[in-house]
Specification:
By secondary structure, the chain is mainly α. The protein is built from 8 helices and no strands.
Length: 253
């Protein structure tokens, strides 16, 4: 009887310890360390990336998140990034994502439009979820240019395509559409495995989420959005002018 009681107590102790460890892992709270005088020093808690952002109580409800204006503006911004990535990829061998570009400039375009334009011309409330649709469209459209910086140049180097790229216009378009189709087909299974099962945190996605949150929530959200938009536009214009001046300088030499 004593042995059974001891085994039950041991099992309860192990179970209580495992529950405590599990709760500590779930809440992601840093333990508070004490000094020699017994005073505790507060620490900042970790940010749990699995939890969604809390809903803003004063914000209107977004009934329509997937809208024509968000997809259209996102595709246009993604096309600009795709063209930039093709040039940058062929010159340097690396490209950059368009999630932050689509999030900030999408907000800069659609937020004033939602206030000034009538409903049938794209007016109406523009919230963070619709902003996320805009940056998702920009990211998808911007990634299509990666084929022209890796796969297609390799095919030309291996002699798999014609000598003149103009003769392969139909092949390039068809291959791009097929790659886009396979990308959409593998989105759901890869999302279930990497995001829902493995709980991986993607830096670009988290940066886009916090950027969109800062653009819509807070007392100084609009002022912060203007500053970010101006900084992005000024940097974009400076890069274009720098490139144009460099080309003119090279031609003069």
């Amino acid at each position: 009887m004593t042995t059974v009681t001891h085994q039950v107590a041991s099992a309860q102790s192990v179970s209580s310890h495992s529950d405590k460890e599990k709760n500590a892992m779930d809440t992601d709270i840093i333990s508070v360390s004490g000094d020699s005088e017994g005073k505790a020093e507060p620490h900042v808690d970790f940010i749990n990336t699995d939890d969604p952002f809390p809903e803003t109580p004063d914000a209107p409800r977004e009934d329509q998140q997937l809208t024509v204006r968000a997809v259209l503006v996102g595709c246009i911004l993604g096309g600009i990034i795709a063209a930039s990535n093709i040039y940058l990829g062929l010159k340097t061998g690396w490209t950059f994502g368009s999630s932050l570009f689509g999030a900030i400039l999408g907000f800069a375009i659609l937020k004033p439009l939602s206030r000034s334009a009538p409903t049938f011309l794209g007016g109406g409330y523009f919230g963070p979820k619709e902003n996320n649709v805009c940056q998702s469209a920009a990211t998808s459209a911007g990634s299509l240019g990666l084929l022209f910086t890796s796969g297609f140049p390799a095919a030309y180097q291996l002699g798999l395509l014609s000598v003149h790229p103009k003769d392969d216009f139909g092949r390039l378009i068809t291959f791009t559409i097929c790659c886009a189709f396979f990308g959409l087909s593998f989105t759901q299974p890869l999302r279930k495995f990497y995001i829902l099962k493995l709980k991986l945190v993607f830096p670009s996605g988290m940066a886009a989420a916090y950027t969109i949150q800062s653009l819509h929530v807070g007392k100084n959200a609009e002022a912060t959005a203007r500053k970010k938009t101006k900084a992005l536009i000024y940097a974009f214009i400076f890069a274009i002018l720098l490139r144009v001046n460099w080309v003119e300088f090279s031609n003069c030499r």
